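Notes continue from the previous slide.

Worked example: a multi-chain complex. Inputs as given:
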Amino acid sequence: MRVHAKRAIALVAGLLLPAVVMADWTMNMSPGVTGTSNEIFSLHMTILWICVAIGVVVFGVMFWSIFAHRKSQGHKPANFHENTFVEVLWTAIPLAILVAMAVPATATLIEMYDTTESDIDIKVTGYQWRWQYEYINDDFSYFSSLSTPRAQIENRQEKGENYLLEVDKPLVIPVGKKVRLLLTANDVIHSWWVPEFGIKKDAIPGFINETWTRVDEPGTYRGQCTELCGKDHGFMPVVVEAVPEEEYIAWVAEQKAAAEVERQLTEKDWTLEDLMVRGEKAYASACAACHQPNGAGLPPAFPALKGSPVATGDIAVHIETVVNGVSGTAMQAFGGQLSEVDLAAVITYERNAWGNNTGDMVTPKEIFDYKNKE
Amino acid sequence: MSAVAGTHSQEHHHGPAKGISRWLLTTNHKDIGSMYLMFSFAMFLIGGSMAMVIRAELFQPGLQIVQPEFFNQMTTMHGLIMVFGAVMPAFVGLANWMIPLMIGAPDMALPRMNNWSFWLLPCAFLILVSTLFMEGGAPNFGWTFYAPLSTTYGPPSTTFFIFAIHIMGVSSIMGAINVIATVLNMRAPGMSLMKMPMFVWTWLITAFLLIAVMPVLAGAVTMMLMDINFGTSFFDASGGGDPVLFQHVFWFFGHPEVYIMILPAFGAISHIVPAFSRKRLFGYASMVYATGAIALLSFLVWAHHMFTVGIPLAGELFFMYATLLIAVPTGVKVFNWVSTMFRGSLSFEAPMLFAVAFIILFSIGGFSGLMLAIAPADFQYHDTYFVVAHFHYVLVPGAIFGIFASAYFWLPKWTGHMYDETLAKTHFWLSFVGMNLAFFPMHFLGLAGMPRRIPDYALQFADFNMVSSIGAFMFGATQLLFLFIVVKCVRGGEKAPAKPWDGAEGLEWTVPSPAPYHTFATPPDIK
C-alpha cells in the first residue's frame, strides 16, 4: 500500500513538475486597461469578498457543528426546529446585501451602454473563422485571421509565445479616443472579446450590436471568439493594437493608399502563373479552413474541390458559387468579402490546383463584369 | 409467493413476472424506478467517458487525440447525455421508488403510462447516440444548440437529434403528469400537503416546472426542424427570422430546467441531513415556500444567460435584479440545513458525507452564480471556463452528489442489504477530491480568459488544464467503484432492518427491507 502511494505521488509530481516550472498560475481576473474593465474588476472583487464572508460565517457554523455536535462525542440532539425571528433575519440580510450590490452594478452597466459621442466607428463582422474590420469613416476594410502555423497546432513545431492568440493583421485603434464598435456576423453567431478592455459582445447575423472602449495605454491586447461558431471556434483570436494618435493617422493613410493600389490591380493584365500564386494565398486564408489545404474538403458539410463538378465544370457556375454562395449551406457568398483580384485568383487556383488541371483562367475584369451585370 | 406479498394485502399477492417480460411489461413503480436508475447510471458512464475524451484532449495545448470537429461532438453529446440521460432520469427513478412509499400509496397513479415513459427513453438515446456513427457526425453545436449553427450550419444528423429531443420531452412530460397525479390523489388519509415529506414537495414542484417548460423546448426544436427541412426562416436572418429568438425560447426552457435538475436533490438532502443529525428538519414551512419561490423566479430570469447578446439596458437590469433575488430563497434553504445540523447529534455515514459536501459545494456554485448575475461582471465571465466551473459545481456536487447521497440512503430499503460502508466512504473521498481538482481550477482558467468549448488553448492556460484533467480522470475512474458497491449490495451483505438509520423519519421506513413488491395496498395511518 505504502509503496503504491509513493509511486502514485511520484507519478503525479512527475506529471505536474514541468507545469510548475513554467508556472503561469494566474488565478484572478485582470483589472485591464480601460475605465470599464477597472470598474468591472472592482465589482468582481467586491462580490467575491462578499461571497467569501458569507461562506466563512455559514460554513463556520457548519464546521463548528461537525466538530462539536457529533454523536461519537456523545452530543445529544437539541429539539428546536423553527424560529421565526432568525428566519426573517436571514431573508432580510441577504436582500439588503443584494441591493447594496445592485447599485454599483447598475451604474457601471449604464455607462457601458452609453455608446454616444464616439470618435471613431469600426464595424466588426464575424465570419467562420476570422474577423473583418471595416473603418467606416475611412472607407477601407480587411480581414484578421489566425497566424499561428498549422505545424504548431499539430505539435510538429515548438509553440510560439502567443500561440493561438496571434493574427496576420490586428485591429488598430488610437489611444485615448472613444472607439465605437458595431458588431454583426455573416454566418453564425460569434462573440468579440478582449478581456483587458472589459468588453464582450455577440456578433449576430442580421443584427448590429454596439459597444465601445477607450484604451489609455498603448500596447497589444489579445482575446478570442467566445461563442461556439463551428469547428475552428478555438482558432479565431482577436488582437488589438492601441497606438498613439499620430501613429494611428499615419497607419490609416497607409491603409487607404494600399486599398487604392488594390483597386487598380483589377485593371492589370494577369497571367495564369501570377493568379495561381495569389490564388494560393487567398485560398489559404479564405477557403482552406473548410475545403482543406489539399482540396479534399470535409464531406458532407464541406465538399471536396479536388475533381469536383463545380471546380472542373462550367466556369460560370463556379464563379456564381464563389461570388454568391450556396444558400442553405455553409458556403458563404465571397463576392463582398474578397476583392475582384482575389476572387479571380481563387477561382483560377481551384481550377488548376490538386490535379484539377483545366487550364482555365478567370481574370479580375471578368469578375468585375459578372458582379456589375447582376 | 406470500413472502413477497407482504403484510398489507390479502387477495392481490402476485410477485413479479418471470424473465424479460417482468421488465418490458412491468407497471410496478419499484421495477420502473430501478430501471430508471440503472438506465441513468449507464448514461452517466457514457456521458462521463465523453468527458474523459474532452479532458484528455485538453490535457496539453495542441491537438493530440481528436480533431476539433469531433471535440465539438463530444462536448455537445456530453452535455445532452448528462442532462437528459443521467440527471433527469435518475431523479425520476428516485421519484418512482420513493414517492409512493413516502405518501403511503400502493403505486404511481398511472402505472401503464409509467412503463411507457420509461421505455421511450432508451429509444430516444439510441437515436441520439446513433448520430455519432452517421455521415457528418453527431450534433456539434453545443448542448444549447444555438441557431443558426444548429440549423443552416448543422450536420445532417440534426434531424435525428430533434426527434430524440421530442421523445425525451414526451417521456418527461408523462413522468411529470404521473408524479402530480400520484401526489395530489394518492396520499394516505391524514397526510395533508403541509405534512408531505420534503422530497415529495420538491418533486411536485419539479413536475409542474417540467410540464411548463418541456413543451417550450419541443417548440424550439420543432421550429428548427421547420427551418432545416421545410424552408421556414424562424431563426434565419436572411429570411427575415431572428437568431436571438432561439436563445429566448431555449433559455425560457433552459433556466427552469436547471432547477428541475436540482430541486429533487434539495428534497433528498432535506431527508438525509435530519436523519444523520438526529434532529427534525429546521424550518419545514420555509423550505416549502423557498422551493416554490425558486420555481416561480426561475421563469423570470432566462435572459441572464444572454447578457452579451445586446438586449436593451432595461432588460439587462430587470434580469440582473430578478436573478439576484433567487439568492434569497436559495440562501434560506442552505441556512435551514445548517441549522438542522447545529446542535444535532451528528454521524457521518456515506449519505451524510455526500449531503454535507452537497451543501458546501453547491453553495460555492451558488456563489459563482451570484457573481455571474452581476451583469457588468458577466461580460467578463460569460462563455468562459468560469461558467463551466459554475455549472459543474451546481450539477456535480449538487445534482449528482444528491443522487449518490439518496442512493446510499435508500439502498438498504431497495436491496434489503447494507452497502459496504468502507468502500462507500472511499467512493466519497475519491469523488470529492477528484471533483474539486477537476472543477475548481476552471474558475481560475475562466478568470484568466479561457473561453469555453475550445479544443486547444493558449499556453498560459496549460498548467491549470493539466490539473483539471488529472482531477477529471480521478473522478471518472472512481465512479466504477460506485458500480461495484451497488452490485455488491444487490447481491448480498449484512441484512438491513426496516429502518437502518436511527434518525430517519417517514413511511418508507415502516415497510420491511427490501420493500415488498407491493406495499401499502391498504393505506397506513398518519398520526
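Summary box: The CA atoms of residues 52 and 473 of chain B lie 7 Å apart. Chain B touches chain A through 99 residues (CB under 8 Å).
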